Amino acid sequence: MLLEIENLKVHYRTTAGVVKAVDGVSLTIDENQVQGIAGESGCGKTTLIKSLLRLLPATATVTADKLLFKGRDLLAMPDPKFRRDILWQEISLVPQSAMNSLDPVYKVGDQVIEAIQAHSSQSRKQAAERTAHLFDVVGLQPNLMNSYPHEFSGGMRQRAMIAMSLALEPSLIIMDEPTTGLDVLVQERIIRKLLEIREQVKSSILLITHDISVIAEMSNRIGIMYAGRMMELGESVDLFENPYHPYTLGLKNAFPSIKALDKELISIPGSPPNLIGDLPGCTFCGRCPFAVPRCDSERPADTWINDRHRVACHRLDDVADIRAKAGEKDTWHSSKSAA
Ligand SMILES: Nc1ncnc2c1ncn2[C@@H]1O[C@H](COP(=O)(O)OP(=O)(O)O)[C@@H](O)[C@H]1O
Ligand SMILES: [Mg+2]
Q: What average pLDDT does the segment 121-149 reach?
């Protein structure tokens, strides 16, 4: 087991109150795995990964029943040790809007070389050779190492950041919305590249995106996150073929599937709730056409459907009916009559 997260909570203190951005998330990542996490913007995805990498502001409080990386307690690890042994060496990050993360005044290659040298004892020559190899892996000509970021397209800058994340052969690479903001063709190309890279490196990948179709192509396991909580988690194929949570069904409706491009898209009306204060029930109940009174008052427990598939919903017994109705536009866009 690479990463074990149990009941992780990340709360931000603000003048308006406590924002429960991540509120009791459990998740494990194995070796050689691509774990996707999908959910709309504002659901706590970036907060979750920043808590793993210690990139949160001082206003954030992190607690967990368990937060283990290769069996080592990450919560208890002192900062210098974390920075020396874990960050980049073991867990690396391709940050959200990575294409804007390069320093405009330095050559792209130098930035990767320096990142390698900052975290290892490699000589400049070794680091340069490694960088040339990494450029090749992500599909950039090694002579582009001498270019400046402004000479790169958005997709090329994204690839450079992916090269940087691979630099020290970490066990886990976290990618936060790696294709968001790129045009569709470039997105496709990056995904294809990522699939190739996945074959070449042994690292596991934690892939974060709001676009469920991107995740379906890339991941062998998927978590569906909503308003600070993990609504459903399972093997990709199982989760796509046998979704249980109304939010998963709603997300599937809202994004084009490669397999059914002509299918009409149905959006989920409304937006994620304000995460300040207590939401005693299911955080999705305000938008859920299948909500019953209990959903408003009682938090649904994580329930295992099989030994790899977990759902937090009060209406699991009615899943056949819910699946049938979730595919109809009226269910989501007329008055709340589906329940
Ligand atoms: N520094 C912060 N202080 C207070 N609230 C924050 C902070 N950063 C994020 N949030 C809030 O936490 C919630 C989750 O945000 P985020 O983790 O960025 O979600 P996502 O990556 O899924 O879009 C949002 O409601 C957001 O407004
Ligand atoms: Mg985000």
A: 95
pTM for this prediction = 0.93
Whole-number Å distance between alpha carbons of 87 and 56: 14
Contacts of 47 (CB under 8 A, 6+ apart): 10, 12, 21, 22, 56, 60
* Spatial CA neighbour of 113 closest among 105, 123, 103, 104: 123
- Nearest Cα neighbor of 177 from 282, 317, 37 is 37
Per cent of the chain over pLDDT 90 is: 77
**Probe ligand 1: pick from 37, 47, 93, max atoms within 8 Å of CB?**
47
Single-letter amino acid, residue 34 = V
- Mutation probe of ligand 1 site: the residue of 9, 10, 15, 19 with most atoms within 8 A of C-beta: 19
- What would the two tokens of residue 167 be? 């630099």
Contact of 273 with 286, CB cutoff 8 Å: yes
pLDDT greater than 70 at residue 54: yes
Q: Are 180 and 211 in contact (CB under 8 A)?
A: yes
Task: Give the span between the Cα atoms of 54 and 146, in whole angstroms.
Answer: 32
Q: Whose CA is nearest to atom 4 of ligand 1?
A: 12
Answer whether 210 contacts ligand 1 (Cβ < 6 A).
Answer: no
Judged by DSSP in three states, 190 sits in helix
